[in-house]
Structure to design on (1580 residues):
């Protein structure tokens, strides 16, 4: 009785999870389930086959009684049939919960597919279910008739269930038993078919080696019998007190179960043996099979096999049943209970490990999505349903026991002295003449069966007919209304430029009903196709753009998610918490635009009033709305405008400037046959989306690609050779390569003779740079160095390029210079297949002249850096803010579209420095870490909401337009009219202009700069219209010479200079002067017929003077041949070199007579060595090395901090900007610390371990990725993760390593030294 | 009931049944022959592994084109190490549905909801018929199918109605309606076909993954047309298909 009570309790308790589970299933579908794409079936499917097995097993055992007449099992006959029914119901209920559309279960009958094992199963279940119910009714009929006369609800229920049957005579009973025998006989093959069929359902799948076995259906059958038998034993024990009442039967059942589980074990063993035997070494055999088996045996859920399946399901029962213990019916019951439980493990281990092996290698790690995991564990919701259905099953059993006399027939109304056995068995064993009544019953039965079968057959036939009639037109027809509303031709496709990163590729934005729904490549924009004009035009048709189509990268595709990011800042915010810090809640208070502008103006106006406008610092992005911010700073009077370039590649710029006078040559991969890249990852860091195409095309054309990098980047993955190197030693490798090339005289003698200087000094300099010397420094074997040098110099044309890998160290500039000079050695500078100097002419910006000249020096001391860049020296600025060592104390700062804290080295110090500003304004789309320190946070725009002109980084002149493709519903009015982004917020340029208006900023001539239109010269109230004029003016006065509207009207909104395609060897081209010399010896900038021409100089005896000698004129140029040039020595300039003016070099008069473009170095040639550099000093006061000597970087590994730490960029993310994009985080959801397997082994770290990374400046936690893709002495990670702010998606993903460094910068260019850190790593 | 009568009735039944079966078979064949449209195209892809840089632009472009929810990817890029390379150098492969000529997913579907279009070889899913049993996912050897669990990008509230353009049905996504609860897969951007079953590349009506590919690695076209780019590539270059041994005859090839 206690067992029964426990049973009831469990059943009742089970109803609670069942209710909750079913409710969740109906309201949330499968959302809460944990299975996915790789493991599409989970706990429920295992449960379903478990119950199906129990059903088939119980039924087959009942056939012992009803088909084969084995009398000793008679007591459990009806219980067995009932168990079969309940188990089947539970199985069907489970699988019903599991399908995606509960309401469509009837499709299996209406739309039959005769080749689907699953369809067969369902049809078989249906038939089997009908048969079971009929059989059970017949078995119970007599008792139901008896029960009709019971008082109360029992009687009523029995009357309903009896279906009008009245007679309870022995004759009727005998007739019933005959029918039972027929049904049971039919049922036996059915049960075998459907359960073997369930095995077949799995077995037929060639895609899943673990299941794909002919033995599978047989195993299913045997296991069904074993589990069914065990369950019956337990049920009998519980309901019939079998251990007392049917002792022998229980013991016999135990023996049967023992036989079956041993047979099952034999089959299982056979499966395992065959599956793993094929190859002797382990793991051998069928790889998919072995992998699944290993998961089952040794995977994270090993206990299901060893504890569940083996210990509980096999060992315990065998130990009981096969020993004298098996003589105690209670122990037999226990053993059978163990089998019932153990078989849960069997079922789980069939379903789950069979699928937990990815069908395609690498599939489970291809995207970072919880549905793409091999490690499945059921969710709470799944357990709810599972336990719920289990509970419901117990309830059904219990109810059956209460309502139905499962164990004993009810006493007859007229008690008859016939034993139970006789009553049941006699009619079967002794056939009697068939009475009339029975015939009637049989007819009724047949009619019913035929009706049911006929209906099923009819539905199936109709379904088949439908299927045959409509073989290819099942799909619901296209909806023309919806195509019009949502389709490709709905709405507009607006051309623009991307700004997901700084690459500015062309895009087409599909805008439907005011919303951007898709972004596609802009095929008219060369930046999306090629950097060489001939390549682009070969495929270009003005009507369609690039015929093969252009491209955009994943970030560009995912841009919409940035636009509609719900974490965006929508309105201006003001800080209320006076304490600043990354751990402080700013206490944002929303304010109006007018209040924001007024208060900011009020806080920075005093700086101007006090004559110290330089106390305003300004940081900006470097590709967007740069000019109006620069104008603002000039007119405000501060020299302290800085931008992102300093964090990026100013080191490379300096290297190339030192070597060849141009700061950004571009590689002509297409024509190159040998490409040697140092620390550059063009196909993954991408930036310009043409890079993957032109680099892979080069490989297709037979080029050899060698990538020198401490990390096997995705570009190195495309290379024929990866050369792992110690970080910051690339310069030494370049010098050694140069030495080999020079000593073996493999260099381009003509180019070196005609177009370089300093070769002898360079030769002397590299003399000591032997391959052995370089091996010591770089870890690249000397033999490799010699081979690479020979390949490089003898495969033509070759190009050598360097980017931010080697650049972001304190020795990056000279190292990059040594690399750049390799191009001169092989003579491919500005030649096809080499490094091309771009002809980059775009819009023209003219700096406005401030009311008062800016006298103050820059706060960051940019002037001290000999190869400093206009983008400033971030690190030094922050250091000076921190220690007060600058020339003055900055009071205010504005940061636009930059995350200073996360972006640069020394995050903690940057935050501390920014917190010292009295007023800090941040303009950003999201609350970045930097924004947490702001006094005012101004909502920024997404690039789909704003304008910009983008001169593209291809080798000829191309300019693309970025334009707003979406806007607020209504134009905004306060405090000035403007169009407004989607939240009605100002674009950055509008904010700057509005602030300029509030401050009343004027140019020297008194013009209200931010009010007066650049073209109309009239006041323009609307901020957007003002900026449109501003851009129009830049376009008109620049190379395009068209207005903004004309640019918008061009295909793809791109201006392409078709007249001046990519040109090579521009340095050798003769230079003609634009200056016009009149007969009266006056020099003019334009021909005589141009009314706007201005006089530039006068000529006296072949020399140009700025004015007559009598007025103190000084020589500014000379006549070369019959043309006039501004000159400085033999340098040819674009204007007079006078006090306060800095004309640009436009060419060189070699030998004083030959005006050519030359290189823009002081010698007009590529400079291997420049003695005058020694006169300059770097930021630390050290003299600059005149040649590209190798100096080790400042921070070297020590015993305490032995590992280099580097970082890199991948296609999936834009620096620190894109981690809140839910699509991009599926590509890359975090940035594990990549560590070499040998190094990891030394530290006791395995893949996936949490580790602590420590430097003298701090420590960071990270997850280790153990691989061989990195140098043994180096660890590294993708940059940009580890946000503590930015948004809900970004927060807490990955690690930010910035605080391990300090605010370090290179002393020649000011480049932020992100990669100069040494660390130690330990297991967390 | 005498024996003769019995036997004649039996014969009658027998003959009737035989005749019915024969008629059924003939009718089935006739109807099938009449209703089966001719094959006009065999759309397929030739993916150049040399050109694929593993950037995964195709993955995102596909998601945006087909407006697939989280957990549903019609293509992913695998980056498995080259065996025996010694340095874990990855090989990138984008994995759309292979639209097999003998698709293992089709025969297993209990309701015939997924099938191969006879006109152009594209394997489709009838969202109105699919019951969501996911047997086809288990049967696909290439992991090309995913189940739509009903998850949504919760952080994208302003995009309004999300429509699934597939099969040009433009279904508005609701929690209880298809394709939620269905199995979904790559359709070769079937909704961009015109009424003749053609794609217009220059008009941007081209599978989204091929259209965006930075390496121009994904070639799409008619494998039955000997002049098409894909056919020419297959003639000129070494191509493989994945798991050829399963006899699935994929319509997606990889150039080595």
């Amino acid at each position: 009785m206690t067992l029964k009570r426990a049973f009831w309790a469990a059943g009742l308790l089970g109803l609670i999870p069942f209710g909750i589970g079913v409710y969740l299933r109906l309201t949330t579908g499968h959302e809460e389930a944990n299975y996915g794409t790789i493991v599409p079936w989970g706990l429920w499917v295992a449960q379903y086959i478990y119950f199906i097995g129990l059903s088939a097993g119980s039924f087959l055992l009942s056939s012992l009684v009803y088909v084969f007449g084995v009398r000793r099992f008679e007591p459990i006959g009806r219980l067995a049939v009932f168990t079969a029914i309940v188990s089947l119901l539970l199985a069907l209920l489970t699988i019903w919960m599991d399908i995606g559309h509960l309401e469509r279960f009837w499709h299996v009958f209406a739309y039959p597919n005769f080749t689907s094992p699953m369809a067969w199963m369902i049809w078989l279940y249906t038939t089997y279910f009908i048969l079971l119910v009929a059989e059970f009714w017949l078995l119970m009929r007599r008792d139901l008739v008896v029960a009709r006369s019971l008082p109360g609800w029992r009687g009523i229920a029995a009357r309903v269930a009896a279906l009008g049957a009245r007679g309870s005579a022995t004759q009727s009973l005998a007739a019933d038993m005959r029918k039972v025998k027929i049904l049971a006989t039919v049922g036996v093959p059915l049960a075998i078919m459907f359960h073997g069929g369930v095995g077949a359902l799995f077995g037929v799948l060639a895609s899943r080696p673990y299941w794909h076995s002919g033995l599978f259906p047989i195993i299913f059958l045997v296991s069904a019998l074993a589990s069914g038998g065990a369950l019956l034993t337990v049920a009998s024990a519980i309901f019939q007190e079998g251990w007392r009442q049917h002792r022998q039967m229980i013991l016999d059942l135990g023996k049967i179960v023992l036989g079956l589980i041993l047979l099952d074990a034999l089959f299982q063993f056979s499966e395992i043996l065959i599956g793993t035997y094929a190859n002797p070494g382990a793991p051998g055999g069928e790889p998919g099979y072995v992998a699944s088996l290993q998961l089952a045996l040794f995977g994270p859920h090993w206990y299901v096999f060893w504890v569940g399946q083996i210990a509980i399901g096999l060992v315990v029962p065998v130990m009981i049943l096969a020993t004298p213990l098996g003589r105690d019916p209670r122990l037999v019951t226990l053993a059978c209970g163990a089998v019932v439980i153990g078989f849960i493990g069997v079922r789980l281990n069939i379903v789950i490990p069979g699928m937990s092996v990815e069908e395609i290698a690498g599939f489970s790690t291809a995207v970072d999505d919880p549905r793409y995991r091999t490690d499945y564990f059921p969710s709470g919701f799944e357990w709810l349903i599972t336990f719920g259905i289990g509970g419901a099953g117990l309830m059904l059993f219990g109810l059956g026991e209460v309502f139905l006399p499962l164990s004993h027939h009810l006493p007859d109304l007229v008690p008859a002295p016939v034993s139970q056995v006789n009553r049941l068995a006699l009619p079967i064993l002794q056939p009697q003449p068939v009475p009339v009544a029975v015939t009637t019953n049989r007819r009724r039965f047949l009619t019913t069966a035929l009706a049911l079968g006929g209906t099923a057959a009819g539905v199936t036939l109709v379904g088949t007919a439908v299927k045959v009639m409509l073989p290819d037109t099942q799909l619901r027809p296209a909806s023309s209304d919806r195509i019009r509303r949502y389709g490709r031709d709905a709405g507009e496709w607006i051309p623009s430029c991307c700004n997901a990163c700084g690459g500015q590729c062309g895009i087409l934005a599909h805008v439907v009903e005011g919303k951007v729904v898709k972004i596609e490549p802009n095929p008219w924009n060369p930046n999306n196709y090629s950097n060489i004009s001939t390549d682009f035009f070969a495929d270009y048709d003005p009507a369609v753009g690039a015929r093969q189509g252009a491209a955009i990268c994943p970030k560009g595709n995912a841009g919409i998610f940035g636009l509609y990011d719900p974490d965006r800042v929508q309105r201006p915010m003001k800080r209320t918490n006076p304490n600043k810090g990354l751990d402080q809640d700013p206490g944002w208070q929303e304010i109006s635009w007018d209040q924001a502008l007024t208060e900011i103006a009020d806080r920075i106006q005093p700086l101007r009033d006090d004559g110290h406008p330089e106390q305003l610092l300004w940081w900006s992005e470097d590709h967007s709305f740069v000019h109006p911010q620069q104008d603002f700073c000039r007119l405000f009077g501060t020299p302290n405008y800085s931008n992102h370039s300093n964090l990026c590649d100013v080191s490379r710029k300096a290297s190339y400037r030192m070597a060849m006078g141009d700061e950004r040559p571009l590689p002509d991969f297409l024509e190159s046959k040998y490409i040697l890249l140092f620390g550059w990852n063009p196909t993954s860091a991408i930036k310009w989306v043409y890079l993957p195409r032109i680099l892979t095309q080069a490989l297709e054309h037979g080029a050899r690609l060698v990538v020198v990098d401490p990390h096997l980047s995705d570009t190195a993955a495309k290379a024929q050779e990866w050369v792992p190197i110690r970080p910051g030693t690339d310069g030494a490798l370049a010098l050694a390569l140069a030495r080999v090339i020079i000593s073996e005289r493999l260099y381009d003698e003509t180019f070196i003779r005609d177009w370089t200087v300093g070769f002898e000094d360079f030769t002397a300099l590299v003399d000591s740079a032997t391959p052995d010397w370089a091996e010591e420094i770089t870890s690249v074997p000397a033999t490799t160095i010699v081979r690479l040098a020979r390949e490089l110099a003898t495969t033509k044309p070759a190009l050598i390029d360097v980017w931010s890998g080697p650049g972001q160290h304190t020795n990056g500039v000279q190292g990059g210079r040594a690399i750049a000079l390799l191009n001169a050695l092989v003579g491919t500078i500005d030649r096809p297949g080499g490094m091309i100097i771009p002809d980059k002419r775009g819009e023209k910006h003219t700096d406005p002249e401030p009311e008062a000249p800016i006298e103050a020096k820059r706060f960051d001391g940019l002037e001290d850096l000999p190869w400093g860049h206009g983008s400033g020296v971030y690190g030094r600025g922050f250091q000076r803010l921190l220690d007060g060592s600058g020339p003055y104390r900055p009071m205010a700062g504005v940061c636009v579209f930059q995350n200073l804290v996360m972006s640069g080295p020394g995050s903690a110090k940057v935050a501390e420095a920014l917190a010292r500003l009295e007023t800090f304004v941040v303009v950003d789309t999201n609350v970045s870490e930097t924004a947490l320190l702001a006094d005012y946070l101004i909502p920024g725009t997404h690039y789909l909401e704003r304008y910009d002109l983008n001169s593209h980084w291809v080798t000829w002149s191309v300019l693309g337009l970025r334009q707003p493709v979406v806007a607020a519903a209504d134009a905004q009015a306060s405090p000035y009219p403007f169009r407004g982004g989607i939240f009605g917020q100002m674009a950055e340029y509008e904010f700057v202009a509005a602030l300029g208006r509030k401050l009343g900023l004027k140019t020297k001539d008194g013009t209200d700069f931010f009010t007066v239109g650049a073209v109309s010269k009239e006041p323009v109230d609307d901020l957007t219209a003002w900026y449109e004029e501003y851009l129009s003016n830049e376009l008109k006065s620049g190379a395009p010479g068209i207005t903004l509207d004309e640019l918008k009207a061009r295909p793809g909104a791109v201006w392409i200079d078709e007249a001046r395609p990519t040109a090579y060897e521009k340095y050798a081209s003769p230079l003609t002067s634009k200056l016009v010399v009149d007969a009266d010896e006056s020099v003019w900038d334009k021909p005589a017929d141009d009314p706007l021409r201005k006089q530039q100089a006068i000529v006296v005896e072949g020399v140009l003077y700025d004015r007559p000698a009598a007025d103190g004129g000084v020589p500014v140029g000379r006549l070369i041949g019959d043309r006039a040039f501004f000159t400085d020595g033999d340098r040819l300039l674009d204007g007079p070199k006078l006090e306060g003016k800095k004309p640009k070099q436009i060419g060189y008069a070699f030998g004083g007579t030959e005006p050519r473009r030359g290189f823009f170095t002081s010698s007009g040639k590529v400079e291997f060595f420049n003695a005058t550099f020694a006169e300059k000093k770097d930021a630390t006061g050290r003299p600059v090395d005149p040649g590209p000597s190798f100096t080790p970087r400042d921070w070297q590994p020590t015993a305490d901090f032995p590992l280099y730490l580097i970082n890199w960029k991948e296609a999936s993310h834009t620096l620190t900007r894109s981690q809140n994009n839910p699509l991009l985080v599926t590509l890359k959801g975090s940035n594990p610390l990549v560590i070499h397997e040998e190094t990891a082994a030394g530290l006791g770290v395995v893949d996936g371990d949490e580790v602590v990374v420590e430097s003298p400046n701090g420590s960071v936690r990270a997850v280790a990725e153990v691989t061989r893709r990195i140098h043994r002495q180096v660890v590294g990670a993708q940059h940009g993760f580890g946000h503590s702010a930015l948004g809900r998606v970004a927060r807490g993903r990955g690690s930010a390593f910035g605080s391990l460094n300090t605010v370090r910068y290179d002393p020649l260019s000011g480049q932020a030294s992100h990669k100069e850190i040494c660390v130690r790593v330990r297991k967390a | 009931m005498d024996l003769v009568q019995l036997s004649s009735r039996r014969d009658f039944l027998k003959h009737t049944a035989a005749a019915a079966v024969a008629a059924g078979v003939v009718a089935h064949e006739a109807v099938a022959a009449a209703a089966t449209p001719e094959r006009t195209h065999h759309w397929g892809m030739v993916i150049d592994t040399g050109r694929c840089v593993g950037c995964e632009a195709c993955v995102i472009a596909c998601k945006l084109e087909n407006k697939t929810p989280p957990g549903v990817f019609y293509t992913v890029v695998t980056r498995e190490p080259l065996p025996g390379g010694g340095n874990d150098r990855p090989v990138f492969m984008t994995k759309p549905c292979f639209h097999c000529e003998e698709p293992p997913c089709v025969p297993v579907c209990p309701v015939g909801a997924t099938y191969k279009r006879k006109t152009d070889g594209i394997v489709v899913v009838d969202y109105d018929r699919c019951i969501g049993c996911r047997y086809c996912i288990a049967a696909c050897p290439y992991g090309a199918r995913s189940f739509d669990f009903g998850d949504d990008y919760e952080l994208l509230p302003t995009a309004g109605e999300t429509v699934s353009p597939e099969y040009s049905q433009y279904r508005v996504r609701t929690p209880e309606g298809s394709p939620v609860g269905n199995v979904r897969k790559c359709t070769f951007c079937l909704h961009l076909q015109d009424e003749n079953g053609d794609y217009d590349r220059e008009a941007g009506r081209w599978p989204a993954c091929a259209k965006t590919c930075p390496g121009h690695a994904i070639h799409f076209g008619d494998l039955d047309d000997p002049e098409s780019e894909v056919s020419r590539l297959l003639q000129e270059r070494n191509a493989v298909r994945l798991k050829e041994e399963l006899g699935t005859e994929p319509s997606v090839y990889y150039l080595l």
Q: What stands out?
A: Residues 3-35 of chain B form the longest helix (33 residues).
